Inverse folding.
């Protein structure tokens, strides 16, 4: 009878997790397994956001393979780098994101993070320390992980209208109207380019109005830039971020190399913060490092080392840029092709990036999955790169009854 006696001595232990409730599996990531289990030969994967080529594959990029060969040959140690990760990676990338001049202002400080999610979470933890009472405003619809990242860091989150799915239109007036309720010091989460899930693009005038709003209301912009180069080009896709950084004293940028370097599972990202003065930037940096230390101690190295190696070698950099151009051209050609098949899809040609939202119900999404083997996110988001010139007609045939 030793076992019950032990239990008696620690009556709490068996129920240690009683306060937890069952959690639903992540719906977006769940699509990966659902698709894999579907035996149909003509199934179409428009679910999770990874680039695909004409064969539906997500190959390792040439420049990445070449950089890995360089690393294999030349890397001499895997000793720890520190909480900031690979500083040369962050510096080289900063020039691509902000341009040389802004990147060298002394007011922008950055650290490597595990993916764009790590960057957003580190930024959320920093905000929870810096301004715990501030509300984070997030437009709807958005990437489903945005809300939880800030909520889990303890920050209040509120939604504002942004994109109207049935009309496939940006609802900018409604956004400005909702944000009238924002308080000075609140945070405004923005997609720097290639909006996920809608693909809707903001004009220069819209960005100027957002700068004006941030100035008038004292809002802090937090830009999520996860698709640079996959919309209109590396420079073009950074323009909005640069507009905000140039015009406003403080801003934050969460960056992901997952898509534009095809490094998804390597988890390669960065968080930059612009402070109003270099002395404040140094304090911000110290806080980012101490938070990173307690979150993940140090970010994983391999993916960032690949990006650094590509950016350090002119030939690899040129090849990466050419590959990225091909990826963008493929996505934009598919946008044109799918838009031309049905009058109800013409909006897709006007939008940018990997995603578009179909104006269909969740029942229609399920019917297309079950009946036609066409997989997409539950809100009707499709990954444009999952289409091919061969499967577009099957896709449109499956979709047409629901439009
Ligand atoms: C997506 O939106 O499909 C990607 O960003 C993958 C993810 O992490 O959700």
């Amino acid at each position: 009878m030793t076992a019950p006696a032990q239990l008696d001595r620690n009556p709490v232990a068996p129920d240690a997790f009683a306060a937890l409730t069952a959690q639903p599996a992540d719906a977006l990531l769940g699509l990966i397994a659902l698709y894999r289990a579907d035996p149909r030969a003509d199934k179409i994967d428009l679910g999770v956001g990874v680039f695909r080529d004409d064969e539906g594959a997500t190959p390792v990029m040439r420049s990445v393979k070449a950089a890995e060969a360089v690393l294999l040959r030349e890397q001499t140690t895997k000793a720890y780098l520190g909480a900031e990760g690979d500083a040369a990676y962050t510096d080289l990338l900063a020039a691509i994101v902000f341009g040389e001049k802004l990147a060298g202002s002394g007011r922008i400080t950055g650290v490597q993070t595990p993916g764009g999610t790590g960057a957003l979470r580190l930024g959320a933890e920093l905000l929870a320390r810096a301004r715990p009472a501030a509300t984070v405003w997030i437009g709807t619809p958005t990437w489903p992980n945005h809300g939880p990242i800030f909520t889990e860091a303890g920050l209040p989150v509120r939604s504002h209208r942004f994109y109207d799915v049935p009309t496939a239109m940006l609802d900018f007036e409604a956004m400005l109207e909702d944000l009238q309720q924002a308080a000075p010091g609140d945070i405004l989460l923005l997609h720097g380019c290639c909006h996920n899930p809608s693909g809707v693009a903001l004009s220069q005038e819209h960005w100027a109005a957002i700068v004006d709003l941030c100035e008038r209301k004292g809002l802090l912009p937090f830009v999520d830039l996860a698709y640079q180069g996959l919309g209109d080009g590396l420079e073009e896709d950074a323009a909005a971020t640069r507009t905000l950084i140039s015009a406003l004293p403080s801003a934050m940028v969460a960056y992901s190399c997952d898509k534009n370097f095809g490094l998804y599972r390597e988890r390669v990202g960065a968080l930059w913060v612009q402070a109003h003065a270099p002395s404040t930037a140094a304090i911000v940096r110290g806080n980012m490092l101490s938070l990173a230390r307690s979150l993940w101690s140090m970010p994983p190295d391999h993916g960032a080392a690949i990006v650094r190696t590509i950016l350090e070698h002119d030939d690899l950099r040129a090849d990466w840029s050419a590959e990225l151009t091909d990826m963008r051209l493929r996505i934009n050609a598919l946008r044109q092709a799918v838009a031309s098949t049905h009058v109800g899809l013409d909006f897709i040609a006007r939008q940018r990036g990997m995603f578009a939202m179909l104006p269909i119900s969740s029942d229609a999404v399920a019917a297309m999955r079950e009946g036609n083997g066409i997989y997409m996110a539950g809100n009707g988001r499709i990954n444009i790169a999952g289409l091919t010139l061969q499967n577009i007609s099957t896709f449109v045939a499956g979709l047409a009854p629901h439009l």
Notes: The domain at 27-59+318-402 is CATH 3.90.1150.10 (Aspartate Aminotransferase, domain 1). The first helix runs from residue 2 to 9. The mean pLDDT is 95.
